[in-house]
Amino acid sequence: MTASLTGYADKISVRVGEKISFKISSVGPNPYNATLVKIVRGDPNPDGPPPKYEDMSELFDGRFASRVQHAWTGSYGLVEGAAALKLPAGLMVEATIWPTLPDDGPQTVLSRRDAESGAGFALVLTPEGMALEVGGERVVVGKRLRPHTWYRVWASADPRTGTLRVGQQPLRRAHATDDEGEAETVATLPLTFDAARPVLIGAEQAKDRPAGRCFNGKIEAPSIAGFAAWDFARRMDSMEIEDTGANGLHGRLINLPTRAMKGSAWTGTERDWTKAPHHYAAIHFHDDDLHDCGWADDFDFTIPRDMRSGVYGIQLSCGTHRDIIPFFVRPQVGKPQAKVCYIAATFTYQVYSNFARPSYDEAFRQRMADWKSSAWHPADHREYGLSTYNVHRDGSGVAYSSRLRPLLTWRPNFLSYNDPRGSGLRHLPADTHLTGWLDRMGVAFDVITDHDLDEKGPALLASYKVVVTGTHPEYHTSNTLDALQTYTETGGRLMYLGGNGFYWRVALSEKVPGAIELRRTEGGIRLWAAEPGEYYHSFDGNYGGLWRRSDRPPNLLCGIGFSSQGTFWGDAYRQAPAARDNTHAWVFEGVKDALFGGFGYSGGGAAGFELDRLDYRLGSPLNAVVLASSEGHDRKNFVVVHEERLGFDTTITGETLEQLIRADMTYIEKPAGGAVFSVGSITYCGSLPHNKFDNDVSRLTFNVLNRFGELGLKWPF
User: Fold this and answer.
1) What mean pLDDT is reported for the chain?
2) Longest CA–CA separation in the chain, Å
């Protein structure tokens, strides 16, 4: 079911003078309106400060004709150059496959077919075994293939005799299992096995969409005798596929099937695909993959020279339908517009994009309607692709996420949870608790994104007095970690205002625009795990998984690291003795109670859901000072994360597992006047708007920001 009104942009971050284009789908029938707004606050909770979208229509306000644009899922290889060549006189095709849903309906392994006339051929996996279809003729082996098993499959067509053959052979036979065989038939002459159409690998041309009958599973070494032979071990870090035959019929991959996958030759002796690419000569295709929707542009907007850095959006309306497409305007390198820089965690936003959480039920739908939150939910719109927190229909993990599609969760008023004590916001919407607080405190700030920082490096941060994170900066590249580490080691001041940050490693590639890759390897709380031997990113060849597994635990940067997780429930912090000493008392100026933060719009408390703590064994600096620690988490099913349980010994640490369930608010002094302040909780920023922003969490955050940024502001209440 297509969303009534939605869209996406070709970029997520732009600077002055650059153009950003928007691609919209609207069922209409009337034209839709598109207006520029500045996103200040996005929480739709009627009990809190109302959403604030500043009208910027003087810069952009348009009315455009409605049209429906579709998102077509399903990955496959496309060899367009094949359409210009004739096949040899006789047809012989072959491939090695590893099916994951062999009992599903027909799934095409290799095809060259005209969708209208039916001319051409298709080698097809069916619940009855492999089949060859030529024109209107069909022959099938009649023996079911086993899932997650490698098979050599083949087919031939003889135009002289009309003989069609198809066969399948497991590379490893199973006892008492009859899954090997060959079948043939004599078809009516003449055979129309050739068609002046592209070759598709893992799909075939369809009448009503670009491709249909998409394959689920791995394909290796597909070939057409005398025509082409594709070697997937080549160009592994791209979306290109190489033909090793004389015709040079190279192709491209559509919708991001997963590369650097174990092939039939894999033995386990080498787990790095860059060192033994022939062991990883398979591509895993899925019928629910999606990369670039390829929608046409509806309008564009060039950022004016005097437009300030910030979080903006194009607000869409058509009748009763509404949507908003956020984007960021960043300053030019070396030309800051403020002393404060907020880093939008766009890697994390993208990794989570379109996460269809299982808690979506009728009560959730009712809250969405009552609060007039973002209307579209990924559970209702799987056509816009999945999150890396979901699994594919065949049970394999989603390793890629693209921004070139409608990102339904990436909306300022999107609800992630039906939160009984708060608003249930995550990611961009939750970070508007922070941007709304900065606005109320009168703090000018610039915005840059993870993507900007990865591209531009530490030069992008060097001019700022203080850099501030949002609620959950979980996913990072080596470039972003290096930039932040350099900033703090050369006099910069960092405020880490979230939890479970700097945790997983991700990869980008210029060869795959708009996409991000994540391999969920050994260790870490995760909803799926990469298969053994598939731990290295295809994009950059680096080992994936936790940064901790690459000897870069978050403690090295911010003094604390992810330690425990529970339900979306928040509790309070209790001040530590250091909070009142002469060196650190300024942080708590105006904060009266030792126990603070037991309130807020994220789970009802400042310390909740995912918590970070100090640990010198993991690289927390020896001069790190704990100012406060959270408590009370045993009430809501908090557990210690897997990597903390491994080898835990109370005789060494002096702590029980239960004592590891806490958030440590930490302060660290760095060289050249640098410093790091960390709160260690995802729900912390949700407490900032409490009591119209006049509360203890708001006050201490103001104290730190005011000093770090040398702002000279007065507490406004």
Assistant:
1) 96
2) 96
